[in-house]
């Protein structure tokens, strides 16, 4: 009997998708949920009780449940000092809370959970899920090169504090100190951060599936390397709303976290010529120093392009006092629908902090980049983006690690006006078509999603 027929007759498989409470995690896991749902899987999206308040735009067909991480009134705290306390408590409380949820759902025949896709930032979830004899799939929201580096830290192959200047790790491009995730460089001050990331691998050998938000063609070597270690390693990305790439879901919307989004910026962009605007955003977490903010402001003011700059409300006080937030030349907003902005034809380039979601989004929408990485995985992402995939350039920093306004202005000209920019644009368009192929019928990610969802229907 055909697989589809079997699916129709069977009770719908129920998959619980447990996402870490951050924008950059919920977004791709929600998009992945939509893919599974499209294959007939019933989805319950789970995140922490406090963070759940942000989940205002989820497709009505996806159920929501919460677990406690011990910080139901607020958090998680992101400063290093409280990080260890947060991790310990969220593990302790989260373990129990997830077990209670699985028990509750298990009491009903319809709600009984067949599979849990859990965020790699919650490795303890695997132990709970296995206790219930449920299929467990770990989901990595970060890039595979970054994950591979943390895996080597976990194995003890990369000793911190780092003493070398160059690193040759299996299946990865040669990396220099400045390309490594920041937590390897700040280990002496804040060991907990790196321990947290290395811990993603503490029990991974027990997972039934290892899923990653990327596509095979983008990360071939490292994907092959991981598949040798974990035969059930699969790339299932890029997980961006279908309306922006393949348009396969008729009623798709850019569901996700509801923040205050400026419609104003789309109207403003409508009035600008094709490819004339620089979009600037440093994501949902990065906090730039005042001096860096001033230099970005100065570079944007002096460059010959229009600009749209996202400055989160918490960062606004760092803007120079005389900086105009709305003028013919530029617009500053506290948040926007990034995908809608990147999809707008007025956008010519993206000055980005190189968060992994931002990179996948810019690649899928064919927008060249200028990298100003801040912390965490971003320097490694910037290296791949500029030297391996060649879809952007990295803005050089001065001796104080600041990108000066003059430098930014020069980079914008390179990408928006010069020959180098044309080459970058053509590369990004090629990656865009490879991404589209990967998620289309017969493509690498598409087939992996089908294989995975079929495996949940026994
Ligand atoms: C962080 C890390 O930097 C990232 O590398 C990691 O993989 C996840 O955690 P963040 O800094 O928020 O994430 O960056 P990014 O991964 O780029 O995610 C930001 C998300 O917010 C993107 O999906 C982007 O579209 C969205 N966004 C950002 C908006 O919708 N509007 C904005 O104004 C800014």
Automatic annotation (TrEMBL):
EC number: 2.4.1.-
Highest taxon of source: Eukaryota
Enzyme's top EC category: transferase
CDD domains (UniProt xref): GT1_Gtf-like
UniProt keyword annotation of Transferase present: yes
Keyword Transferase tagged: yes
Keywords: Glycosyltransferase, Transferase
A single GO BP: monocarboxylic acid metabolic process
Any one Gene Ontology molecular-function term assigned to this protein's record: quercetin 7-O-glucosyltransferase activity
Pfam families: UDPGT
InterPro entries in the cross-refs: UDP_glucos_trans, UDP_glycos_trans_CS
Protein family per UniProt: Belongs to the UDP-glycosyltransferase family.
Protein name stated in the entry: Glycosyltransferase
Species of the source: Phaseolus vulgaris (Kidney bean)
């Amino acid at each position: 009997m055909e697989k589809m027929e079997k699916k129709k007759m069977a009770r719908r498989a129920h998959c619980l998708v447990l996402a870490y409470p951050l924008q950059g995690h919920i977004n791709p896991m929600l998009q992945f949920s939509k893919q599974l749902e499209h294959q007939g899987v019933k989805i319950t999206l789970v995140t922490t009780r406090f963070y759940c308040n942000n989940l205002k735009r989820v497709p009505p067909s996806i159920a929501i449940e919460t677990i406690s991480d011990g910080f139901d009134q607020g958090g998680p705290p992101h400063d290093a000092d409280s990080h260890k306390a947060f991790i310990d408590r969220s593990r302790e409380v989260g373990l129990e809370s997830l077990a209670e949820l699985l028990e509750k759902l298990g009491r009903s025949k319809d709600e009984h959970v067949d599979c849990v896709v859990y965020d790699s930032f919650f490795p303890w979830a695997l132990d709970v899920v296995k206790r219930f004899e449920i299929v467990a799939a770990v989901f990595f929201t970060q890039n595979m090169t970054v994950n591979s580096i943390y895996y080597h830290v976990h194995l003890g192959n990369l000793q911190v504090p780092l003493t070398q200047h160059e690193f040759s790790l299996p299946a990865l491009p040669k990396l220099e100190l400045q390309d490594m995730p920041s937590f390897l460089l700040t280990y002496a001050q804040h060991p907990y951060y790196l321990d947290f990331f290395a811990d993603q691998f503490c029990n991974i050998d027990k997972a039934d599936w290892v899923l990653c938000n990327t596509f095979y063609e983008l990360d071939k070597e490292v994907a092959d390397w991981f598949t040798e270690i974990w035969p059930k390693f699969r790339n299932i990305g890029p997980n961006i709303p279908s309306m922006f790439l393949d348009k396969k879901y008729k009623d798709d919307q850019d569901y996700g976290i509801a923040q205050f989004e400026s419609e104003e910026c789309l109207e403003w962009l409508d009035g600008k010529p094709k490819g004339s605007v620089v979009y600037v955003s440093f994501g949902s977490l990065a906090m730039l120093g005042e001096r860096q903010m001033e230099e970005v402001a100065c570079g944007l003011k002096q460059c010959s392009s229009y600009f749209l700059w996202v400055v989160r409300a918490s960062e606004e006080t760092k803007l120079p006092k005389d900086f105009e937030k709305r003028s013919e030349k530029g617009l500053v907003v506290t948040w926007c629908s990034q995908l809608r902005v990147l999809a707008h034809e007025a956008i010519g380039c993206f000055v980005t902090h190189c968060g992994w979601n931002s990179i996948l989004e810019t690649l899928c929408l064919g927008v060249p980049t200028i990298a100003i990485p801040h912390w965490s995985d971003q320097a490694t992402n910037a290296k791949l983006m500029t030297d391996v995939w060649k879809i952007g350039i990295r803005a050089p920093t001065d001796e104080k690690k600041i990108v000066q306004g003059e430098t930014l202005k020069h980079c914008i000209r390179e990408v928006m006006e010069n020959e180098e920019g044309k080459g970058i644009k053509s590369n990004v368009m090629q990656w865009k078509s490879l991404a589209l192929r990967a998620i289309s019928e017969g493509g690498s990610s598409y087939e992996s999603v089908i294989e995975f969802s079929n495996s949940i229907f026994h």
